[in-house]
Amino acid sequence: MDIVVEQTETNHASLSFKGLECRCSIGEGKITENKFEGDLCTPAGKWPLRRVFYRKDRLLKPDTSLQTLRISKNMGWSDDPRDDTRYNTLIETPYLFSHETLWRLDSLYDIIVELGYNDSPPILGRGSAIFMHLARPNFEPTAGCVALKKSDLLSLLSLVSHGDLLNIVK
After folding, report:
1. What local confidence, expressed as pLDDT, does residue 11 receive?
2. Is 118's pLDDT higher than 90?
3. Fold topology of 2-169
4. Domain residue limits, the chain
């Protein structure tokens, strides 16, 4: 089934799935069909939900049928288009190339859903680290991800099954 995300305002969208209707943030550059690294846009299309990462020190393991992994202090995600071997994949820090740090001081990455965007195989420069994660308190725009409030993301995770797709509609 499709989890539908549709833009409602400049940097906001609505998400709907199996009766769950909620607000979410999208990229500062809005939704695009031509995503590239650093454009601050959320990629339009249908993306599988791969894995769920979570901070065990901040919350219990999410109730979901998806694979879950605990975030550790040395986890990162390669976002450097010059990294021709690990671009757009989970990496261990410290790391030579530019990367996202998954263990953050704020709460945005307390829960991360890895989306199957540009990963089969990754194309250098087409965008990386596109996740569903927790929203900032005022739903400020993301750098390209989809962000939900904690209760909504936990509810969504309890409803999804393997094979469900995040359908980001422009």
Report:
1. 84
2. yes
3. L,D-transpeptidase catalytic domain-like (2.40.440)
4. 2-169
